[in-house]
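Internal ticket #5521
Category: modeling
Description: The requester needs a full-assembly model to guide mutagenesis choices. All entity lines are attached below as received. Residue total reported by intake: 306.
Assigned to: D.W.
Attached entities:
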Amino acid sequence: MSERDLDARLRALFADADTGPGFEAQVMARIAARHTAPDAKMLLLAERHREATRQRLRREAWMNVGTAAGIGTALIALVWREGPAVARWVEQGLAAASDVGSLGTFAFVSLAIGTWVALQRLMTR
Amino acid sequence: MPADEAIIQLVQAGRAQEAFERLVPAYRRRVFGLAFSILRDRAAAEDLAQEVFVKLWQALPRYDGRAQLSTWIYAITRNAAVSALRSRRRTVSLSDAEVQAEVEGIAREPAASPDDAALRRRIEALPEKQRQAVTLYYLDERPVDEVAAMMGIPVNTAKTHLHRARASLAAALGAAGEVTE
């Protein structure tokens, strides 16, 4: 077989190898499908995130209510059972609070605790 | 290539959509041909070519012009085709008999004359790079330097593959008595 014959036969063999009709339209359809898919996915993810946040806040609110109720109950029980002793602690506390040095210490400790709590919150965001 | 320059200018002007609309017709046949030369399956090659254009649409705004546009597109196509081929090999494990049946099936493509079927079988039997070079060269009558660029190999290597492939085919077909298997 001559080279020319071989060339002709190989050209003829591959002549009809091509994409089908509507190739470009199919590409654009795939792009359109991909383009909308991430949006839908993002919406779904955002909705899930919102729902998780709602549940977390509800849980925290119930825990806060429970904590406040527990502390309140404990205080009432304490006053109920140890009334005179509590009155004495309060008097002693007020006397100590009227002292300038104690007030200064209390203010400093409160400021330090407040700053620490604020920093903790900022760092966890 | 003038079409490439126009496409690059559009990309640099931030008009990626327009650039893409020019890129698809300019590269459709080359991307398909390259995919076909690697996958050896027309439907799979067309599917992969569409996927490559979707990738190009996503990546085109980030094309920085460091590589030639064609080189960039061919590299994306080659990588996608090789990945597709690997995943196909992983998922489809055929016995020798099944492989033979598949090769016969490729040879019996619609409306193939006995001569064409024999020629296809000879091409299938060529080493991978030779087969790829022949397919790319004759599929769209591309010059050898472009075949080399599409395959990602030096021009002289592409010439060698092509020369050896043609010699093998001529010898095989000649020895078979003008293709009457």
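Resolution: model delivered.
Comment from assignee: Chain A touches chain B through 21 residues (CB under 8 Å).
Ticket closed.
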